[in-house]
MMPL family transporter
Amino acid sequence: MTALARWCLKRRVLVLLLWLAALCGAVTAYALTGSSYSNDYEAPGTESGTAAQRLESAFPDRSGDDDTLVWHTDKGSVRASAVQERMTRTLHEVEKLPGVGSVHSPYDADNGSDGHGGAGSGGRISQDGRTAYASLTFSRPVEEMDAQQVQRVVDTAKKAAGHGLQVEAGGSGIAVTEAPTAQLAEIIGLAAAAVVLFLAFGSLGATLLPLITAVVSVGTAAAGIGVLSRFMTVADFAPMLGTLIGLGVGIDYALFIVTRHRRGLRAGLSVREAALRAVTTSGRAVIFAGATVCIALLGMLILRLSFLNGVALAASLTVVLSVAASVTLLPALLGMLGMRALGRRERRRLTESGPRPDRPTGFAMRWAAFVERRPKMLGAVAALLMAVLALPTLGLHLGTSDQGNNPATTTTRKAYDLLADGFGPGSNGPLTLVGELDGAGDKLAFDQLPDALRGTPGVAQVSGPEFNGSGTTGVITVVPGTSPQSQATSDLVDTLRERVLPAAEAGSTLQVRVGGVTAGYDDFADVIIGKLPLFVGVVIGLGCALLLLAFRSIGIPLKAAAMNVAAVAAAFGVVVAVFQWGWGSEVLGLGGAGPIEPFLPVIMVSVLFGLSMDYQVFLVSRMYEEWRLTGDNRRAVRVGLSETSRVINSAAVIMIAVFGAFVFSGDRIISMFGIALAAAVALDAFVLRTLLVPALMHLLGGANWWLPGWLERRLPRIGIEGPAAPSAPSAPLVSATSMAPDITLSPQRTESLIGLSESAPTVTAHGYRKHEDHD
């Protein structure tokens, strides 16, 4: 780290140009290749996945995405000549638009009831005659759709509205026009972070440095994620998730280094020495923290789901580039900025009064002392608060939201509601039964299956069967009586698989599998839930192993694991209340209440365990340093809390502002991440790290640092912050280090000793332990 920091400081212009070249190169590559995001929830080996593959091979024309144009009238009927003429003319106009493959009108075969609860053209006109829909097929897959072409389809269809007729459009293709843009969320997050940084630093130059490094690294990563999506499955929310995480950790990592650099300047170091020391020490902590985040994110690879593999690699790429920018680009910028990293008042005070060390004062010291005096009471209050917030997690319902959860003002939500009102809630998520036939006996059994299905509780409509040209594959469409998100629909899928279909297959070689979007979502959720304990165990185990090596203690890793679990549980409680129960979701523009995405727990655990480790390392490493120096647990906890709480709180406020801004992204999934991460960071920083953790450490005393002797001898030694960068020698520092050669002094402690030398030059390391008034 020392060699890297020295090289970056010496060749700062070259470093800046290299980063700009990397950013421009990534953006250029993205512009040339484009992106190909895909929300493919298919889990290999599941029943719905097998059904989808069979359907795609037997019916190639059904492999694309179908959208709908829905119209409704409150007066009269959609069969009225005026309505029919207007909509027929509109559908012909839509069919001629670029990008549209075909349009199937309900008026083309309106010969009365189809016998399955609808009327005409496969039931595309409701029984009351007031709602109708046309099936719309685009010529290209959703991920390749041009938003402007799709918008022309929506605009053309909506021109027919008026005079009592409502026209809406729904489906995955139409949703392209409502795709969220991160620009607003990014601007709000960066603006809020800038305000917090300026209040913390009081210097415009120091405020801009973390923002510049974060923007450059996140911009490079976002373009890289787009290119990555051309070669593997990457979810469409991955770039925005990467931006959310990257801005949060990137600004925070730069904050830690800039804070240490400014501390060195105030202590009288030169710009070069202060930057060198900041990167050599805090830079190591940043690399350690970034590594833990990446390890937690890459833990998703053990689930062996292509959908999550892309998310893990995309988010990890953003974190890696954020760390790289913090330890290379940032020191180069610090060298360019010079003394302007300090505010004018600080520079004037440094000139007039000379260097002085930073010492915790004010509220931080009073709070640390208050926690020391009341550890039992404060610990109980914090634990109770976390338990109350975590209670809603017990009612967590995992499922996949659809356009019924979109904001009420969107056309996709209105189309969803019109279909549900006119044709039943299950019409928005029909089940597809795919049969594999071998001979006349199987065909006869499959022909008789619809009668058994109509008698099954929970089934609203049945259509089919249909067969492919060779007669080896048959399809039956089942419309549930409940919405796709309903637990009753999931129960119907289980009933069909466990009872109805086995009975129909008896005495034949027929194999029928339940597919469709709803069944696919249920299978995807089951796979994740089944592997979740293994995933959480791996992430917790790796995190505890790292902390064990860093702090040589059994208690510290165990407390960290418990705190991380508490933060995740409480954050999920907030998410359940807002998104599943609908508390304030419509007011915030987040749409209606619905289930929690099945992949959210996995990604949340990964991100939160990584981010929580940052604060744990920053807080406990200072306590550990003081413990090694004095052997006094109470003093170690008090000093560690008082000296780190301000930076932890500043970093937390920045992360909360960045994460909270993404609530306005317009995307339900990203809003879930924004609220969950903002809530988790707030609770982690203001309740766990500054209240519950120090309270528990006061109560446990010296047991915090206990490690069996046999394990101590076998563990390798790693240092999070390492030795300080070389600087001008000072007598007190030499004295302290010579008396305690096994102690690695951080720059913060070194500067405290330097400050002591000004007022008490004869103080030794032993005397420093005894005289707390110098703290």
